[in-house]
């Protein structure tokens, strides 16, 4: 068995269904390479969770990033794409909206407690058409109770809609352009720094510097989860020193990189 393959991995494809076989349906996937789905929607709620690897859900308005111990809640009807890091072990729950009337109406990242993690793993091994009146049905009910109690966490990056800001955000993914400030971007785009600054705050709720820092830190989660050295990740993300990276990471996530992935 590959050291990156979890021992309880099974595979279940999801056919095109007009409805779910049960109000709560589990799907398991092993993704050996970074995966990308085209923009799509579901008529049901989706909870995307990885027991290994890092998942990312992108909507028109934001990126939602979920390393292990976190999951992404996607409401019914929300158009989205799903990315994953290599060798991701994914557990998805598909939930009839009627079973979760308390559910949020927007995407969010949720903390997954040890109990919720084990409930998801146990439920994912059940047959698709499990006995709703027996023990499997009671397991599903407890899982939904724990899911309702799961707190939201700040692993989201809002995406602007303005075409000029989109160009800036895309450019920040390029290592050659990562260090450009807002004044340099203004020169490139033929717009004042003040205008760009005002647009960033209006469309994302964050200043340009805060947005760029959050982007860098979210981009750091995948290489950190895969075991790359913190120093190498810090430099690759554009930080001049390890201490500056760790301080920024702690401010954003409330823990150092080592603590974050030991949870």
Automatic annotation (TrEMBL):
<dbReference type="InterPro" id="IPR020449">
    <property type="entry name" value="Tscrpt_reg_AraC-type_HTH"/>
</dbReference>
<dbReference type="InterPro" id="IPR009057">
    <property type="entry name" value="Homeodomain-like_sf"/>
</dbReference>
<protein>
    <submittedName>
        <fullName>Transcriptional regulator, AraC family</fullName>
    </submittedName>
</protein>
<dbReference type="InterPro" id="IPR014710">
    <property type="entry name" value="RmlC-like_jellyroll"/>
</dbReference>
<dbReference type="Pfam" id="PF12833">
    <property type="entry name" value="HTH_18"/>
</dbReference>
<dbReference type="Pfam" id="PF02311">
    <property type="entry name" value="AraC_binding"/>
</dbReference>
<dbReference type="InterPro" id="IPR018062">
    <property type="entry name" value="HTH_AraC-typ_CS"/>
</dbReference>
<keyword id="KW-0238">DNA-binding</keyword>
<dbReference type="InterPro" id="IPR018060">
    <property type="entry name" value="HTH_AraC"/>
</dbReference>
<dbReference type="GO" id="GO:0009893">
    <property type="term" value="P:positive regulation of metabolic process"/>
</dbReference>
<feature type="domain" description="HTH araC/xylS-type">
    <location>
        <begin position="166"/>
        <end position="263"/>
    </location>
</feature>
<keyword id="KW-0010">Activator</keyword>
<keyword id="KW-0678">Repressor</keyword>
<dbReference type="GO" id="GO:0003700">
    <property type="term" value="F:DNA-binding transcription factor activity"/>
</dbReference>
<dbReference type="GO" id="GO:0043565">
    <property type="term" value="F:sequence-specific DNA binding"/>
</dbReference>
<dbReference type="InterPro" id="IPR003313">
    <property type="entry name" value="AraC-bd"/>
</dbReference>
<dbReference type="InterPro" id="IPR011051">
    <property type="entry name" value="RmlC_Cupin_sf"/>
</dbReference>
<keyword id="KW-0804">Transcription</keyword>
<keyword id="KW-0805">Transcription regulation</keyword>
